[in-house]
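Our example copied in:
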Amino acid sequence: MIPRAVLKTIIKLRNMTPEEIRAYFEERATRIKSRGWTAKQHAEDQEKWHGLKNERTYSKHFDNNESKVA
């Protein structure tokens, strides 16, 4: 069974536009600075927790060059 909070987040993200998804993960990257991750890395981490693959991934909305840590 999927926890309610995870399910709410999945539904929320599935109804977002690509721009809204990028903004959501950019805000997370700013808020959770302790990990030192980019917005795309946060998106990839969320995909793992949500068990997403292929066309449903969040990270597809980011450029490939964002995946590098500066």
